[in-house]
Amino acid sequence: MAFLNGNDPQGGNSFVFANVIPKGLGIDMMKLPYPGHGPTVTALLTGEVQTATLPVPPVLEHARAGTVKILGIAAEQRHPQLPDVPTFREQGHDVVVGDFVMIVGPKGMPDEVKAKLSEGILAAARSEGFAAAAAGNGMVLRPGGAPGRLRVPRAPPG
């Protein structure tokens, strides 16, 4: 029997993750896309869907309040804000996914502009204030970059 899973519109991260989860967990799941995390959380809270595929931040306070139960973390490690919630791998399921936030610029951006942006963004992402604010919102930061590119992963989906 399939159950309804709220997720992003086609192509969004949680839509992609929702395509990985049924095989990894050996379940039948029908995807119901919503136009963002807010409407997906609302659908979960009102019972419109039985599950949702979301990153941790939009449901963190609901989990703490007991209005939602996070069934597993789809990451290599437990989420630091939810140390009692096991990963899917710990539960015997090979479901590990990641969520990335990218900063992009126009084609042909001068190298000196890319370098300046990368330097500034990485410094901000590594700053104590930003790290504290991100952690308070349930984000797990792993700032990284490459020549011409900057990569700052967000919290693993919950």
Q: Helical element count?
A: 5
Q: What is the C-alpha radius of gyration, as a whole number of Å? A: 17 Å
Spans of at least 5 consecutive residues whose pLDDT stays below 50 are: 147-158
Quaternary structure annotation: single chain
* Strand segment count: 6
Shape: globular
How is the main sheet built? Answer: 3 strands, parallel
Which class do the helix and strand fractions yield? alpha/beta
Q: SSE string, helix = H, strand = E?
A: EHEHEHEHHEE
Q: What is the CA-CA span between the terminal residues?
A: 23 Å
Helical content band: 25-40%
In what range is the share of β-strand residues?
A: 5-15%
Short summary:
With 158 residues, the protein is an alpha/beta fold. It has helices at 13-25, 37-46, 60-65, 111-126, 128-136, and strands at 3-7, 29-33, 51-52, 100-102, 144-146, 149-153. Among the domains are: 3-54, D-Maltodextrin-Binding Protein, domain 2 (3-Layer(aba) Sandwich), CATH 3.40.190; 100-153, no CATH class.
